[in-house]
Amino acid sequence: MRALLSGLLLVLLALPPARAASDLDRLLGDLLRPATPQGEVRVRARIERTAEGGRLVVELVPEGDAKLVADPGLELAGLDSPGIRWRTPRAKRVIPGEPYFDGGVTVVLPFTGEGPGPVRARLDYAWCLLAFQCLFGERELELPLPGR
């Protein structure tokens, strides 16, 4: 570290004074400022047909420095839709006492019905940019029934 700072000082001494000061401020700021974490949670949803009707499959995929919070976890709740009856009104994924899920999470909500649709649901989840900030996410999902 001492050699790095000595080399930096030699370079700055060779520059004109005003430029050396601004370059030094910028360089020290870059070296001393912690990097801001970058990331997001990608949400993918699809309808799968089953013998009983169908199922709404929702995948949450953390990218970059993002992590999904395991407790309180996430919840997917079916919303009223013409001709759609939820076999289970909500699905929840939680790991009590754990800070984060290990990677992505998939949650499934089965339904019956052949009505006009669309299939509608609400997704609530918590996620964090590690060691920086935690956020709550909410999405209303609306997907057409396959073949409509």
- Radius of gyration in whole Å, from Cα? 25 Å
- Broad CATH class of the largest domain: Mainly Beta
Gross morphology: elongated
> Mean of residue pLDDT?
85
N- and C-termini, Cα separation: 65 Å
Q: Ranges with pLDDT <50 over ≥5 residues?
A: none
Question: Care to count the β-strands?
Answer: 9
Report strand %. over 45%
DSSP helix count?
2
Biggest sheet features: 5 strands, antiparallel
Q: Domains counted in the coordinates: how many?
A: 2
SSE arrangement:
Elements: H1 2-14, H2 17-32, E1 39-50, E2 53-64, E3 66-68, E4 74-78, E5 85-86, E6 90-93, E7 105-112, E8 119-129, E9 133-143
Antiparallel strand pairs: 1-2, 2-7, 3-8, 4-6, 4-8, 5-7, 8-9
Defining key terms:
148 residues, alpha+beta, Immunoglobulin-like, five-stranded antiparallel sheet, 2 helices, 9 strands, 46% strand
Question: Summarize this, please?
Answer:
With 148 residues, the protein is α+β, with helices and mostly antiparallel strands. The protein is 20% helix and 46% strand.
Architecture overview:
The chain has 2 domains: 2-32; 39-143, Sandwich (Immunoglobulin-like). The protein is an alpha+beta fold and 148 residues long. The chain starts with a helix and ends in a 5-residue tail after the last strand. The strands form 2 sheets. Strands 3, 4, 6, 8 and 9 form a 5-stranded antiparallel beta sheet that branches. It has a 4-stranded antiparallel beta sheet with strand order 1-2-7-5, with no helix packed on it. The protein has helices at residues 2-14, 17-32, and strands spanning 39-50, 53-64, 66-68, 74-78, 85-86, 90-93, 105-112, 119-129, 133-143. The protein is 20% helix and 46% strand. The chain is built from 2 helices and 9 strands, in the order H-H-E-E-E-E-E-E-E-E-E.
